Each structure stands twice: as structure tokens, then as C-alpha cells.
């Protein structure tokens, strides 16, 4: 798996340090009381597990399965909700977690849906944000790292379902995508 990586973009120690900072910001910004956290599967799984253990407050943790990519390295332009049941968010403050902000379609669509379902407020946190124009008007409230517009894997992010368990964020060799 490591052999398929061209270069490491963000190593584990740097990610961990940044998560300490993000958790402090989240803890400072939210009013007291229980916060509902929505983890977008599967990409945000690793990020969420490491971030949320640093947030010392009552959390209700929910997961959502959405698909915007269908296996390749280009966004399909459509966001599908794959779960039969939507988490209960009515009258709650919600923190939405995703791995990466790319075109913005996913965060935009899920945010809209959470508001329709009665969330009081929706804040968003992403590990990575690509430096590029968004297809939808959306920015994240908390961003771990801004990166260039290139395809990355690791720390939850996949290429065709693989590489999510790499402990760092890296760029794939071209040979691994062919
Ligand atoms: P968006 O809807 O275009 O913002 O894309 C969001 C989703 O696309 C993310 O949750 C990822 O699953 C996927 N994605 C976007 N860029 C990358 C990447 O560089 N590597 C792996 N997955 C990505
Ligand atoms: Mg993905």
C-alpha cells in the first residue's frame, strides 16, 4: 500500500497536532448542552474518531451514508442519500464532519437536508479543503488543512475503496490509478 504513494502530503504527527487545535476551537464556539455530530461515511470515519475523542462534552454521534463519487477521481455531480432513516436533528445544534471539501456539493446537499429536518444550526468541519472554486456556495467552519487541487488518499480518504487506513494524507503514484 505504501508503495503506491508518490509523496506524503501531511504526516500523522502534523494531523494530530492540528486536531488538538480544531477540537479547542469547536469546544470554544458551541454553546453548552448536547451537540449532535453527523459523520459522513466512510471518508470522515478516521478524522471523526480522532477529533471527537478530543472534544470533552456530551455528543450524540450519528453517521450518514452519502455517495457523490462513484469510484473514480472525479465528482459525479449528484449527491445520493443511501440510508433508510435520517438521524434525529430537530431543535439541535449540529456539527457535520466530512473528510474533504472538493466541489462542495456534498456539504451543501447534506447541510440543506439537516436544515430541512429542523436543525437549529449546522456547522461543518473538514480535515481537508481543496483550494479551488466550489460548484456550490459552501465553505467549512473548521478546516484542518488547505491543500492544492490534487487527488489525495489516506486518513479516511480512498481511491476505489482502498488506502483509507493509511495514517497520513498522501498523493498516489500515477501507476496506482491505472
Ligand atoms: P465534493 O462533494 O465534491 O465536495 O466531494 C466530497 C467527497 O468527494 C468527499 O467526501 C470525498 O469522499 C470525495 N473526494 C473529493 N476529493 C477527493 C480526493 O482528493 N481524494 C479522495 N476522495 C475525494
Ligand atoms: Mg470517497
Descriptive tags:
3-stranded antiparallel β-sheet, binds magnesium ion, 6-stranded mixed β-sheet, Rossmann fold, 178 residues
Write up this protein.
The radius of gyration is 16 Å and the shape is globular. The mean pLDDT is 93. The strands form 2 sheets. Strands 4-3-2-5-6-7 form a 6-stranded mixed beta sheet, with helices on both faces. The chain has a 3-stranded antiparallel beta sheet with strand order 1-9-8, with helices on one face. It has helices spanning 12-29, 45-52, 105-116; strands at residues 5-10, 35-41, 59-67, 80-81, 93-101, 121-130, 142-147, 152-153, 169-172. The chain is an alpha/beta fold. The two termini are 15 Å apart. The chain has one domain (13-147): Rossmann fold, CATH 3.40.50.2020. Helix content is 21%, strand content 31%. Inosinic acid binds next to strand 5, helix 3 and strand 8.
Please, how many helices? 3
Biggest sheet overview: 6 strands, mixed
- The shape is globular
CATH architecture call: 3-Layer(aba) Sandwich
Average pLDDT reading = 93
Question: Which hetero ligands occur in this complex?
Answer: inosinic acid, magnesium ion
Oligomer: single chain
Strand order of the largest sheet: 4-3-2-5-6-7
Q: Predict the CATH topology.
A: Rossmann fold
Query: Order of helices and strands, N to C?
Result: EHEHEEEHEEEE
Low-confidence stretches: none
Amino- and carboxy-terminal Cα gap: 15 Å
Annotation, overall tally of beta strands: 9
The CATH class turns out to be: Alpha Beta
Percent of residues in beta strands:
25-35%
How many whole angstroms does the radius of gyration measure? 16 Å
Integer tally of domains: 1
Provide the structure class.
Answer: alpha/beta
Fraction of helical residues: 10-25%
Amino acid at each position: 500500500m505504501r508503495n503506491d504513494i508518490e509523496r506524503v502530503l501531511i504526516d500523522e504527527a502534523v494531523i494530530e497536532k492540528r486536531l488538538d487545535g480544531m477540537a479547542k476551537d469547536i469546544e470554544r464556539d458551541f454553546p453548552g448542552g448536547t451537540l449532535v455530530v453527523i459523520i459522513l461515511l466512510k471518508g470522515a470515519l478516521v478524522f471523526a474518531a480522532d477529533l471527537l475523542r478530543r472534544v470533552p462534552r456530551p455528543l450524540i454521534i450519528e453517521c450518514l451514508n452519502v455517495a457523490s463519487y462513484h469510484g473514480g477521481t472525479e465528482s459525479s455531480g449528484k449527491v445520493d442519500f443511501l440510508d433508510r432513516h435520517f438521524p434525529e436533528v430537530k431543535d439541535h445544534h449540529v456539527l457535520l464532519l466530512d473528510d474533504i471539501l472538493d466541489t462542495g456539493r456534498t456539504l451543501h446537499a447534506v447541510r440543506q437536508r439537516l436544515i430541512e429536518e429542523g436543525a437549529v444550526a449546522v456547522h461543518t468541519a473538514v480535515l481537508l479543503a481543496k483550494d479551488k472554486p466550489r460548484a456550490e456556495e459552501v465553505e467549512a467552519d473548521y478546516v484542518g488543512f488547505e491543500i492544492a487541487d490534487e487527488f489525495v488518499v489516506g486518513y479516511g480518504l480512498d481511491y476505489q475503496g482502498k488506502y483509507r487506513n493509511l495514517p497520513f494524507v498522501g498523493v498516489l503514484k500515477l501507476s496506482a490509478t491505472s
